[in-house]
Amino acid sequence: MSGKIAKVEALAEQVRDGTRLALPVDYGGVPMALTRAIVARGARDLDLVCVPISGLQADMLIAAGCVRSIETSAVTLGEFGPAPAFTRAVRDGRIALKDATCPAIYAGLQAAEKGIPFMPIRGILESDILANRPDWQVIDNPFAADGNPDPIVLIPAIQPDIAVFHAPLADRDGNVWIGRRRELMTMAHAAKHSLVTVERVVDGNLFENEELAAGVIPTLYVDAVAEAVHGAWPLNLWDRYPIDEAAMRAYIACARDGTADDMRRLAAKAVPPQPYPAAAE
Amino acid sequence: MSGKIAKVEALAEQVRDGTRLALPVDYGGVPMALTRAIVARGARDLDLVCVPISGLQADMLIAAGCVRSIETSAVTLGEFGPAPAFTRAVRDGRIALKDATCPAIYAGLQAAEKGIPFMPIRGILESDILANRPDWQVIDNPFAADGNPDPIVLIPAIQPDIAVFHAPLADRDGNVWIGRRRELMTMAHAAKHSLVTVERVVDGNLFENEELAAGVIPTLYVDAVAEAVHGAWPLNLWDRYPIDEAAMRAYIACARDGTADDMRRLAAKAVPPQPYPAAAE
Amino acid sequence: MIATIAGLLEGCRHVTVGASSPVPGAGALLARRLAPADRPMIVSVLGSQAHNMFTNGGVETFDCAAEGRIDAFFLSGGQIDGQGNINLVGTGDYPANTVRWPGSFGSAFVYFMIPRVILFREEHSRRVFVDKVDFISAPGTSSAGIHRPGGPYALLTPLCLFDFDKAARRFRLRSVHPGHSVEEVADNTGFAFDRPDEVPVTPTPAADRLALIRGTVMDEIAETYPRFSADMRAALPAA
Amino acid sequence: MIATIAGLLEGCRHVTVGASSPVPGAGALLARRLAPADRPMIVSVLGSQAHNMFTNGGVETFDCAAEGRIDAFFLSGGQIDGQGNINLVGTGDYPANTVRWPGSFGSAFVYFMIPRVILFREEHSRRVFVDKVDFISAPGTSSAGIHRPGGPYALLTPLCLFDFDKAARRFRLRSVHPGHSVEEVADNTGFAFDRPDEVPVTPTPAADRLALIRGTVMDEIAETYPRFSADMRAALPAA
Question: What is this structure's pTM?
Answer without folding.
Answer: 0.96
